[in-house]
Amino acid sequence: MALTEWISERLQHRPDIIAQRIEQEHFVCTIFYLMDAIDLEMLQTHVLRPMMRSFSGNVEQLLSSIYQTRTFFPTTYFIKHTPEESLDGLLCGHALLCISGQTAGILFPFASPAKRDISVSENEKTIRGPKESFVEDIWTNLSLIRQRIKSENLVIEQFIIGSESHTIVMLLYMKGHDNGELVNTLRVKLQNIQTERVPGSSFIEEVLDDRLSSPFPKMLNTERPDVVVSSLFEGRVAILTDGTPNNLIAPATLLAFMQSAEDYYQRYFFSSWIRILRYFFFGVSLILPSAYVAITTYHPEMLPYNMLISLAASRDIVPFPAILEALMMEIAFEVMREAGQRIPTTMGQTISIVGAIVIGDAAVQAGIVSAPMVIIVALTGISSFVVPHFSLTLTIRFLRFALLMISAMFGLLGLLIGVFLIYIHLLSLDSFGTPYLSPLIPYKSEGMKDAVGRFPWTFWLRKK
Q1: Position 326 pLDDT exceeds 50
Q2: Which tens digits make up the pLDDT trace of 406-422?
Q3: Exposed (0-12), middle (13-18) or buried (19+): which is 457, by Cβ within 10 Å?
Q4: DSSP H or E stretch at residue 289
Q5: Angle formed at CA 322 by CA 317 and CA 327, multiple of 5 degrees
Q6: For residue 238, which of 156, 133, 330 has the smallest C-alpha distance?
Q7: Residue 346 reports pLDDT greater than 80
Q8: How far apart are CA 242 and CA 52, in angstroms?
Q9: d(CA 260, CA 358)
Q10: Contact at 8 Å (CB) between 98 and 7?
Q11: Is the pLDDT of residue 112 over 60?
């Protein structure tokens, strides 16, 4: 069966397929393309006009210049010798030219997919840093990276994943940065993915994770090109996925999730001070409610006498134990946080803030919860927003409930056991061969320049 008939039969139920037939005395061809998916001006200029001018010439000479010498069309084109390859190219947004009597298809890369403009990063904002963020188009994202790395050492490997979606996934790394084993591992895993579609970068992240039982993320996801570029120069590997603005970086350590892009655009002592505060409030958001429940339930003697009297007075009319009170407030806070994310932007922040104030004050006035518990939960929630990366924030929110339960059962001893178990779990974790607590455990002096604080840039330049 000729290619034209084969394509027409396979796509006869697709109303978005345009078939433009061009017929002359000795020459017939058909151009297929997806509606609103290609640049029609490019098609008109570089394909239709040259062909209309050459219909009166020798057909054999015309076919020879198309297939053999490749000098006929004044643009780049690809010849596909199987119908399946031609069909795949057409569905990817290319224009397909089928010449009557010929089995090979000619693909023109005139795809013009719908995409949004580059905008300011919504989730990783900076004051002094660049404002660009990734978009859903992988070629635009790759362009943003190439603008910052003008080196032949940038290696880009492309994979097509998904038998139905044909999603483009790219593996990026810098040659000569001692990352060969990591690159080989990720390459093999990407090649072995068998699926019909790739919903997004989160799918790739979960498939590549060898330890799904851990709540801690193993790959850093970011929508900032400068973060990807910095990671590439540090010897890490980036994975770009078509259709999503969030791209992946591996390996990722716990300290990497505590670093913000803003740290590298401010003076080093300001960045170091803010980062230390970030670590402190990371601990606060994790253990503060559990410590409050444990102390007020089992160890009230640890509190100063005046504070103890104040807490006892505030809880005098509350009919619930501290653990139930804490669980109610934590769940209510989580509900308001989720509702604030789902409500339209123009009213979401106002409704969430007003709702929190009204509900919190009404709950205290009604004697359902105590005022100190409202303060503890509010401080905990605010502290969790200090963590720069949302994936680690989700981990904290999950572990907070586990620590609450064990603290309610065993007091401070249970809290210490819970924290110790989390620490043991972190020691056992690694991200593609890199210890999760590196460079602290195992200790690496070179990595300490950008660990708890950030050393001045002059320390980095001295090495070079």
Answers
A1: yes
A2: 999 999 999 999 999 99
A3: exposed
A4: helix 268-298
A5: 115
A6: 156
A7: no
A8: 37
A9: 33
A10: yes
A11: yes
- How far, in Å, CA of 141 to CA of 295, rounded? 51
What is the number of helices (H) and of strands (E) in the chain? 17, 12
Q: Using CA atoms, how far apart are residues 423 and 358, in angstroms rounded to an integer?
A: 38
Residues 6 or more apart from 59 whose CB is under 8 A from it? 26, 27
Look up residue 54 and give its two tokens. 């050459």
The letter for the amino acid at 193 is: I
| Residue 464 reports pLDDT greater than 50 | no
Please give the Cα distance from 35 to 361 (Å, whole number). 57
User: Which residue is listed with tokens 């569905």?
Assistant: 91
The rounded distance, in Å, linking the Cα atoms of 104 and 4 is 10
Q: DSSP labels for 310-328?
A: HHHHHTTT--S-HHHHHHH
User: CA–CA distance from 431 to each of 45, 61, 85, 366 (Å)?
Assistant: 51, 59, 37, 49
Query: In this structure, are residues 222 and 249 in contact, taking their beta carbons and an 8 Å threshold?
Result: yes
CA distance 71 to 217: 52
| Residues 304-321, mean pLDDT to the nearest whole number | 83
